[in-house]
Write a structure and sequence with these properties.
- Belongs to the gluconeogenesis factor family.
- By secondary structure, this protein is an alpha/beta fold.
- It has two domains: 271 residues, Rossmann fold (3-Layer(aba) Sandwich); 37 residues, no CATH class.
- 38% of the residues lie in helices and 17% in strands.
- The chain is built from 13 helices and ten strands.
- Strands 3-2-1-7-8-9-10 form a seven-stranded parallel sheet, with helices on both faces. A three-stranded antiparallel sheet has the order 5-4-6.
- β9, α12 and β10 form a beta-alpha-beta unit.
- α1 packs parallel to α3, α3 packs antiparallel against α4 and α11 packs parallel to α12.
Amino acid sequence: MTPAVPGRRPPAGGGRDRRPHVTALGGGHGLAATLGALRHVTTALTAVVTVADDGGSSGRLRQELGVLPPGDLRMALSALCDESDWGHTWRDVLQHRFSSTGPLHGHAVGNLLISTVWELLGDQVAGLDLIGQLLGAHGRVLPMAAVPLDIEADVVHRQGSAEHRSLVRGQSRVAVTAGHVERVRLLPEEPPACPEAVAAILDADWVILGPGSWYTSVMPHLLVPEISRALHTTHARIGLTLNLSAQVGETSGFSAADHVRSLSEFAPDLRLDVVIADPTAVEDIDDLSACAGALGADLLLRQVSEGDGTPRHDTLRLAAAYRDAFERFLGDVGEKSR
């Protein structure tokens, strides 16, 4: 089985494919949650994944082999595996980590496999497509950029009335910083985007941002010039899925509305169509609604958490929220007029 690769929307008329073509942007567990939900809504699905991880198995392979960090790409592929014994078995193989006293300790098999096919094929996208075929993936996984990236953050530390700033470099360090992230940037500052990722955004009916680590998985897409330009010019509708809680370190003290405000600070001209939030994670609905409205978006409040007190999205509830959003806006045509 070959992975479904989104193409341009077919013309209206007899036999039109009515499935929304969806491109989801992010990384890590947040993107995996999005993909797990979206696969219940459409099979025309593409993941565009951050490539700035510098820790763990991904960081070691990146440093030793000079490859894109494969970990978030592996997680996205695993989230799209075929719902069969074959797909589940290969998903478990990809996710398996070695435990030993030697140099293989902590490495994920999937990271090694992805790095292997990249070396054999000499093509990042072709390698990911090949792993997708192995999994029977229902969708496609693409890197955000064609080169490994570093994240650098300006962080404000406050202790009482005293305040000082520091420069924190590296995704793994920014994600757990004890200060307030004031600004992030990518190194190199204007990295080349993956062309297929740009095309997936331009060809989509819907683009979904979030949930996920705000400054290290969600925001980086807005810092790649070609990705940002595609987000600003696409005819796709754009949805933002909010986190269920602030992340210790990276967004400590952030309200739901603060997340939206920070997005508007990074991309003041970006227009959204819907902001999806769980009401239990919203401190002030009026504030959040106003922030969403300032970006042109409606606020869609739905229970999307598992409801057990943990900040984890429930796959079927999140899928229902996406379906509500898509049906409200797509109608019979699926075109957006800005």
